[in-house]
Amino acid sequence: MYKSFFKLKENPFNVNPDPRFLYLTKEIEEALTGLMYGIQTRKGFITLTGEVGTGKTTLVNRLLDWLQKREAKTAFLFNSRMNSSQLFDFVLAEFEIPCDSKSKSQQLMKLNHWLLERYRLGETVVLIIDEAQNLTFPVLEEIRLLTNLETSTEKLLQIVLSGQPELEEKLKLPQLRQLRQRIMLRCRTAPLTQQQTQEYITERLRIAGASGEPIFSPKAIETIHVYSLGIPRVINLLCEHSLVNAFVEQERPIQPKTVEEVAHEFQLDEVEPIAPPGGVRGDTDVYNSEAFLQNLGEALSRFRISPPSSRERK
Q: Is CATH 1.10.8 the classification given to domain 3-18+192-265?
């Protein structure tokens, strides 16, 4: 709708995590380099954490592109709300490993045999789990045990856990100390500074075909940074709707007032796009865990009221 007015070839601020639009800040470049290094050197366990909307999924997609060029075998699990049996089903399905049995031991044997074959062929195998902060304790324990699939010198499976800052808080809990000790690399994404916000917007416009004429005024970009707090996803939201509104008003370059109207429409002047500080409560995760639900069911079964006996009815 606005592309011809602003002389653009495509929409520059789509919410899709297109790796072409990945803006490499120092922090993003360090995170990407860390992920590549950890996988290349078979470190086993790597975490990628960052606030919502700071580019983790886009970064993972760039990593997947890199792995595909290296002909690595990859599995990307984006649904982290699963139990232990579903975990193995998803992993085998993603790696296209045939297994008729639902037995965990049989599935592990199949996976281990397949990983050894890949290792003999010199291939790298990577499992990436998104939204990992939602994984329950039992599933995280199963994932930890997957790192036991190894030779005498190297890990057969490289695992990347990607999630929000709550993942880091969860890994500090005593129940997960064994998993925490196995994490060899910790990579992070971060909000953009005001200078980086300007460069981010300019770069995305350039990739979308901008001719060089100013589309956002300097003050408008400052306003975008103020309301977005440097979160790329929120920057995209503000820019996209500002472009639409400016097109309707035939306004170029875009002024701060247009950005402020969009921010008000999405209540960004009332609610910050970053979660308030505070750790993850361990008891919340326990209540969501498989073990707790199973024990709760057993406990409740003991208190079910049995039908009264004939003597009691009298």
A: yes
Condensed to tens digits (0 to 9), the pLDDT of residues 87-105 reads 999 999 999 999 988 888 8
Fold of 26-188: Rossmann fold (3.40.50)
Contact 124, 67 (CB under 8 A): yes
Q: How many CA atoms lie within 13 A of 187 on its CB side?
A: 28
Where do you find CATH 1.10.8 in the chain?
A: 3-18+192-265
Render pLDDT for 25-69 as a digit per residue (tens, 0 to 9). Answer: 999 999 999 999 999 999 999 999 999 999 898 899 999 999 999
pLDDT value of position 300 = 44
DSSP 222-252: HHHHHHHTT-HHHHHHHHHHHHHHHHHHT-S
The answer to whether the Cα torsion of 126, 127, 130, 134 is positive or negative is negative
Nearest alpha carbon to residue 8 among 201, 292, 175: 201
Across-strand partners of 126? 74, 158
Q: Return the beta strands (E) in the chain as ranges.
A: 45-49, 73-77, 125-129, 158-163, 183-188
Report helix angle 137-146 to 84-94, nearest 10.
40
Question: Which residues in the chain show pLDDT less than 70?
Answer: 276-314
Q: pTM (2 decimals)?
A: 0.81
Helix (H, G, I), strand (E, B) or coil at 188: strand
Residues 250 and 243: their CA atoms lie apart, in Å, by 10
